[in-house]
Amino acid sequence: MDFSDTQAEANFRETARAWIADHAPTHLAEPLSQSGFGSTRTGDFDPLEEAKKWQKTKANAGWACLQWPKEYGGRGATAIENVIWSQEEGVYGKLSGTFIIGQGMCAPTMMAFASEDQKRRYLPKLASGEEIWCQLFSEPHGGSDLAGLRTRAVKDGDEWVVNGQKIWTSGAHYSDFGILITRTDPDVAKHRGLTMFFLDMKSQGIDIRPIKQANGDSGFNEVFFDNVRIPDAQRLGEVGDGWKVALTTLMNERLAIGERPPPGFEEAFALAKEIELEDGLAIDDGGVREKLADWYVNGRGVTLTRFRSMTALSRGADPGPENSIGKAITGKMRQDIAAFGMDLMDAAGAIADADNAPMRALFQEALLSAPSGRIAGGTDEILRNIIAERVLGLPQDIRVDKGIPFSELAKKEQG
Ligand SMILES: Cc1cc2nc3c(=O)[nH]c(=O)nc-3n(C[C@H](O)[C@H](O)[C@H](O)COP(=O)(O)OP(=O)(O)OC[C@H]3O[C@@H](n4cnc5c(N)ncnc54)[C@H](O)[C@@H]3O)c2cc1C
After folding, report:
1. E strand or H helix at 200, and its extent?
2. Which of 161, 162, 200, 380 lies 20 to 30 Å from 312 when distance is taken between CA atoms?
């Protein structure tokens, strides 16, 4: 692979760089550069407001969702141009985290299954950040086993009536729309009786309750549905085909959250250069250097694997199961680096003062946030199952419920 720019790519990079220099919110560069490994460090700015402002500025100039077609709010750019843009956007790209679910998961699902009118109505506002979307998949009875979900949708004339509960819905409390997977036929095997919709999060009958996380944030929610009505026109895919639609979302999810750049190496490297151990700087210790080298190699591996995926996408392929590799590696890496940082700091790691000891606080935040990264978007075990079965072609996990009608399974579970 040759990673140097062609002349056309170099020109594109120059144009992007000049535009960013003129328009980026430079006053946020410093706090943004210190965020991301731990939870987002916001200083005194409102991350949601700033994210929306930056997204709108980009959209107005044709720099939002670069690879999307122009008529849906994108630029019609190539995959490589998209990579160049991300490199040039640098720390300001961290503001886009708010939009990952909408732009990276809901939008590809809408592009594949919504009507042309709907795409033209919803996608440009998704691209510009004016409307935020969430993903209503997981339930108390359907996380890793998503097809075990119980939220029911029953047809009533031209509408569907939805009752049930979702959980861990990131950003539901500030989202305008969401994609929702429901059970429409309990009397067939669990993967067959599902149907997908999109809906207005302000619909009557929706109750959103934030959940507090270990790191103090409330990024996700419980969402309750009490006779919520959704027009049939907002169905995505055929009735009973929801699993197929969900796979489109999930494959894009793993691509979108596969971490770029891989987390924590720079922070660990900086810490090792600063911390004094008994016999000198941590960076001069053989054990420390070995760990740093391992993380660097893993990080580069993830980046290059991602480039391979982007190349395949640019040649018209759909995102595939190999995109599970990125998160499977980086989720654990983030947690290992956070724990390593706390070990290196020893008793000084107890200081929790983001203003006076920003490096200490960063590793503490990372330690509390990292476990969720190994669960969200598929747990480590599920990602390994996917890689084993669908990338390496190993035998399937044992599935005792295969082919059994969902209603029978639910009865058995109730005993
Ligand atoms: C920060 C965060 C944000 C999230 N955001 C969203 C969101 O926006 N929308 C949404 O719909 N969901 C969201 N989720 C939910 C997430 O997708 C689920 O938590 C995840 O899929 C795991 O499901 P579960 O919590 O029900 O755990 P379970 O499925 O109950 O798993 C429990 C344990 O069993 C293991 N396990 C389960 N099945 C197997 C198997 N077949 N083989 C081996 N081990 C297995 C799991 O690995 C795990 O260790 C989010 C979660 C987090 C942490």
Report:
1. strand 194-200
2. 380
